[in-house]
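Re: folding output
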Amino acid sequence: MKKYFTFEVQVLDDKNVRRRFRASNYQSTTRVKPFICTMPMRLDEGWNQIQFNLSDFTRRAYGTNYVETLRVQIHANCRIRRVYFSDRLYSEDELPPEFKLFLPIQKPVQKSNAICG
């Protein structure tokens, strides 16, 4: 869609502090502040599958442990097919069909031998 996009996840850590992670395609550097971590995200053309390890991000950014997700906020200029949480990273084969990202099959363009005059 070639437009700005951002999503934000608010988590609670084991110090009972609410922290936010914001990923966007209009920012070029990562910044970690006491209550928010902002980071760049590049999206390819077409559909993208984004995997966000909240436990790892919380530990690396703040040195604390992830406890729970409090809020997920997705800002405009994108189409969302599905948002889901999992206890670990699953391979494509392990996912149920409704969680897989099936891309549309593109039909080849047929060449025409017509003569226009």
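--- second protein (sequence, then structure) ---
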Amino acid sequence: MVNGQRMVKPAEVTPLNAHVYRVFNVFDRLYQFGATDYFARFQGVDEGYRIFSEALRGLTTEQVNLGIRRVEGLENRKLVFPEARAFFNLCIWNDQEFSEQLWRYEEKN
């Protein structure tokens, strides 16, 4: 207690991964239903940042850049951005794994 008032410890806040805002900007630019719009409507943008921050933890800048390049290079991308775990996979898969899983990220004709 301080001056007769009970001190409340602030909640621990985990800092966001530095790449989260960049990834959201790419999704917002490329997808009809971008990440910011989606999370603003359904879970809150801050929650979206937290989800993606958690998914990107431990990735290098080069890995995140690879994931972004892969999203940007999709010929016939789906209307909705990839969810956090799917984007994580895009960042870490080797080229063979990516080519085998490409169907998950593109619209069927």
